[in-house]
Amino acid sequence: MPQSTPYSSSTVLEQRLEPDEEFTRPEKIRTVLDTDTLSASEIGHYNPDLIIAYYRRHPLQVIGRLIAILLPLLSFCFKIWLDKTQGKVAKNQRKRAVKLREILTRLGPTYIKVGQALSTRPDLVPPLYLEELAYLQDQLPPFSNDIAYRFIEEELGDHPREIYAELSPNPVAAASLGQVYKGRLKTGEIVAVKVQRPDLIRRITLDVYIMRSLAAWAQKNIKRLRSDLIAITDEFAGRIFEEMDYAQEGRNAELFAELYGYIPEIYIPRIYWEYTGRRVLTMEWIEGTKLTNLEKVQAQGIDATYLVEVGVSCSLRQLLEHGFFHADPHPGNLLATPDGKLAYLDFGMMSQIKPYQRYGLIEAVVHLVNRDFDSLAQDYIKLEFLTPDTDLTPIIPALSNVFGNALGASVAELNFKSITDQMSEMMYEFPFRVPAYYALIIRSLVTLEGIAIGIDPEFKVLSKAYPYIAKRLLTDPSPELRASLRDLLFRDGNFRWNRLENLLRNARNSQDYDFDKVLNQALDFLFSPRGEFIRERLVDEIVKAIDVYGRRTLFNFSSAVRQQVGMKAETMPSDLAASSNSDSLQHLQNILQMLNETPGFDVMRLVPLIPELITKPETQVMGQKIASGLAQKMAARLIRNLLLEAEANNNKKQEGKQGNPFPFTPPRLPLPPQAAMR
Question: What is the pTM of this model?
């Protein structure tokens, strides 16, 4: 597998995946209108203006398609309503599930993709429906071999029997956009040959035109909808158009391998370019089992839950390291290989998010964990959910109510869907809008979480994601994440040791956690100009720790001496007693214990660093400040004690003068006889 190093620049992605501007030129629109056709060779990349121009000239096609969509769906909804009124829901559920699968299949690729997304949501869809919708992943009705062979000949320049040594007589799988044959090259390699379905451009462009028109109408007439539905539709349609170009899919696969192939548990098949074109893709054949086929996966001794965790970790890297991510991770595209790896198969629907969006997502998670809802509201502006001129005054309490109640004791207890559901409710009340790029992220993560829940109903994506977030915070040198780390560790001028302990505890559970990198990044940042704030706080913490430790040691020694000589024991000062259970030394001991339990940590690696650190000017300045701080504390305590002692002595003198005006006690005189008789 190609090797990669994390956090590379996104410039490479932008250059490698730049769309061809030829298909956005006005001349293209005129060409399509003049020829009155809408073929793949003419339309190329997704161009909404071209599609609108074409179908405005063909209204009958649009009306016919609308009827073809609405009639079966309305009929299906009516039968569901009848089942509920007649109490036959359970009896007819299998029949209705089969009917829904057949309707979506007949409606074509766009609606098949909707069914594929639903097939991974056991928390939303009943089991019988899940079972039927799962057939949409790779068991759709195939098209004829004659058409497939003709496409191969047109794309590769020769009949399949002249190109391949073997080719299965029938497709081994059929999905929304194409079908797959198992073959063997004349050089001996076993391959998968994917051939595109016929008439895709016409069917998909017509559905996209209808979806876009409905989105435009809803955006204009439904005031509560503030999201840019047109942009979301365009984003989805653009990805489908890329998916129809198998040459682009091959480039996506190679880039995906370049960026994420370094992960040991991930496998990406090889692309054979001499046997690949726009409608034909030849790639390495992968033997494997769907993750959702739990019994078969476990029978091979493979831990399906662990592979899902690998998938979650890989998805986080896709979203937050390079921003090039798989937007369609349904079970048909993810296989468990016999050697326990997770194989990605389909690279047609990929998408990108920009660096500021990636860092914004990480910062939002940090602020969510930290319950910093003021900063979380600002994150929504950075991520383009809110406009910069939005009044955040009513939104911050709403975020506190929504997430404060939902988070409970731990962010790890939430699943991703619960967060999106909470957000959906709030978006109706305030001027939130869903950015186009975010829609595909939601689709990807919700699909992956659906697979995970199907394998383990207690699986929590966020609990598996936070170790990666913690690792990134500790190791990423970017200014954005350095600022997030500072905000997480410091609050109201105090260093929050429990947050650091939590970060280290979670980060060590990340698969590629590198302590040396954490140490190097920490030292580089600590002794840089940006780390001055932390150095000052560390000086304060060290001064406090040494002061408390010294005072406690002196008090314990004094108590021991008094006990030996039989004197009454003194009570520990209240401020010293209060710090005994939460002082910095105890936290440091906890951290050292965690480090000792961290794979790859060796305390001897720190020894060579000591002379280098001591000679740094910043260390010497810190030492001077520590000495000065301790001296100031001692002087302040000495002066305070002297003043308190003087005040106590003065109070005693005053009490003596006010309570007894005579300097001596007068003798008691005998009573006179008359008084004694009374």
Answer: 0.69
